[in-house]
Design brief:
This protein has helices at 12-23, 48-52, 151-191, 198-206, 218-240, 270-281, and strands at residues 8-10, 38-39, 87-93, 121-127, 130-140, 195-197, 264-269, 294-298, 310-312, 315-317, 323-325, 329-331, 334-340, 344-355, 364-377, 383-387. The protein is α/β, with parallel strands linked by helices.
Length: 389
């Protein structure tokens, strides 16, 4: 399946796999992110008998265990006005300067044509397609009353079901968005575009020969992370310049862009961000953390058991402007990503919760949750992948 069509793609199996990797139920495995990212151009089933027959008739206090969970990556969520439905994005490529006619264009017997046509070199990209998924649970009227002391506890149990389902959906949505970042990382590495090898550059500048393990030794840690902080600032400043660095170009329609600080998103491995906060900000920049609009720590990129690794088959825009599916990528030591806010976005459409009528014979109600999520990725916008190698 491929989301870069007008079809609605059912991604329940993919979300289940991502969920198992994210929660540690399964080790990291190759994931085809190209299937559900719109590029320019283990699940809980609460059955009747296994769950409810396991609850004994209550004698003492009952604790209803659930607390709200909020999905991460809020910084790249867009509303349906900015991103939703069928979107087209129009950019204009720079044209080279023409020769001067004021000082060098005057020739006897010839006129200077001020009506010569020069068309704009327009690049138009389209985004469409979305992913749908559904889940449900059952609320009984009579079968579980004996498990609780009264209506209050029964109501609390029903609320517990709803909260657990909401938490599950928040996490599933987070994992879909996390996979959007994974696709970005895999695509940039596949194209070798905007990939920065931090440790290699640090060793080249300092004359050292540190390894990824060496930088966490106390003697090396502070100096390295100070340098990393400076490097992030340097890269951010370069991204703010109007240039063609760190972005994919369509042949014949090369676009020049810039990313101001307020439009820059930075996601760093949470462990590394902790080191920067502890070893750099508290020592050198007491009151100045990474001073950007959106900096967020990421506990893991794809699988919680292997937090610094990404293993995906990415989709990206090719030099011909068409969607391409790259080769499978295994990317180790992912330190972070930096990108323009228009490079990655998602929106949730048609989220709904609906109840069935009471089943008169079985005396239960089913609650269905469904959603349609649309994800976008534009590699013609500026973006950088930071690797710790």
């Amino acid at each position: 399946m491929a989301v870069n069509t007008m079809n609605l793609e059912d991604v329940y199996a993919l979300i289940n796999s991502l969920h198992e990797q994210a929660t540690g139920e399964r080790a990291i495995q190759a994931t085809d992110t190209s299937s559900f990212i719109s590029v320019a151009n283990s699940a809980l089933r609460a059955g009747v008998e296994p769950v409810y027959n396991a609850m004994m008739q209550t004698i003492g206090k009952t604790i209803f265990s659930a607390r709200p969970y909020e999905a991460k990556f809020k910084g790249i969520q867009a509303d349906n006005v900015r991103w939703g439905g069928i979107i087209r994005k129009i950019s204009i490529a720079d044209r080279p300067l023409d020769e001067d006619k004021v000082y060098h264009g005057h020739v006897d017997g010839q006129s200077i044509d001020q009506y010569a046509i020069r068309k704009s070199n327009v690049l138009e990209m389209r985004y469409f397609g979305s992913d749908v998924y559904e889940d449900w649970y059952t609320v009984y009227e009579t079968q579980i009353r004996s498990a609780f002391t009264g209506p209050e506890q029964l109501g609390s149990f029903v609320a517990l079901q709803a909260q657990t389902m909401d938490n599950k959906w928040e996490q599933y949505r987070e994992e879909l968005v996390r996979s959007n970042l994974d696709n970005f990382i895999g695509a940039k590495v596949a194209l070798n575009n905007g990939v920065i090898h931090l440790l290699t550059e640090y060793n080249a500048q300092t004359g050292l020969t540190l390894t990824a393990q060496d930088i966490y030794k106390p003697a090396n840690m502070a100096d390295f992370f100070r340098w990393v902080r400076a490097e992030i600032n340097t890269l951010a400043r370069r991204m703010a310049e109007r240039s063609q660095l760190y972005q994919v170009q369509v042949t014949g329609k090369e676009i020049t862009r810039h990313t101001p600080k307020e439009n820059l998103k930075i996601y760093l491995a949470a462990d590394a961000l902790d080191q920067i906060d502890a070893m750099v900000n508290t020592i050198t920049f007491h009151d100045e953390p990474l001073a950007y609009a959106d900096v967020e720590g990421v506990s893991y990129w794809q699988a919680i058991q292997d937090p610094m690794k990404v293993q995906v088959t990415p989709a990206y825009i090719g030099a011909d402007g068409a969607v391409a599916t790259g080769e499978a990528q295994t990317v180790n030591n992912v330190f972070g990503v930096m990108f323009d806010e228009d490079a990655i976005a998602y929106s949730v459409r048609d989220y709904s919760i609906m109840n069935t009528p009471m089943n008169a014979r079985g005396r239960y109600i089913n609650t269905f949750l469904s959603a349609n999520i649309q994800q976008m990725q534009d590699l013609t916008e500026k973006g950088i992948v930071l690797l710790l190698d």
